[in-house]
Amino acid sequence: MHGNKRNLQVIEEKLSVDKELIIDGSVEVRTRTCKVHEDLLLDLRRDDVEVERVRIDRFVDDLPEVRTEGDTTIVPVFEERIVKRLFLVEEIHLRRTTAFQSQRVEADLRKQQATVERTSKDKHTKEKYRG
Fold first, then answer.
1. 89 and 79 in contact (C-beta within 8 Å)?
2. How many whole angstroms separate alpha carbon 42 and alpha carbon 107?
């Protein structure tokens, strides 16, 4: 079988890919700002402080610190006396109360609206979107 030679052909395919940028239209966005008058109902908080001066008139060994008891903040007021001891003259009691009320407020607010137009290059048509 040495006399039979066969020739085989080898075929190779190659793929070539090219990219091309094609613009088929454009988008135009326009915004418009207008003022809108609105009545708003707001909940407002108001804190009031009641001040009460409480006479103490006694000697103390240490400098009292500001303290809180319930809804009352107590601020000690002292002075040194000739005997060089701390003498608590008075305490100032600050009591806070909170009240809420609703109040109508008028305001001019800015608001934007957008218009989007897409233009098709081939069809020369415009599609509008409003938002």
1. yes
2. 12
* Tokens matching residue 119: 């233009």
Q: For residues 104 and 84, what is the distance between their CA atoms, to the nearest angstrom?
A: 59
Beta 25-60 vs 67-69: how paired, if at all?
Answer: unpaired
Q: Which residues contact 46 (CB under 8 A, 6 or more apart)?
A: 98, 99, 100, 101
- How many residues does the structure list for the chain? 131
For tokens 């109040």, what's the residue? 103
Structure-block tokens of residue 14:
């190659």
Q: Kindly report whether the global pTM for this prediction surpasses the value 0.70.
A: no
Task: Give the pLDDT confidence of 96-118 residue by residue, as tens digits.
Answer: 888 888 888 888 888 888 888 88
Four-residue CA torsion sign, 17, 19, 24, 25: positive
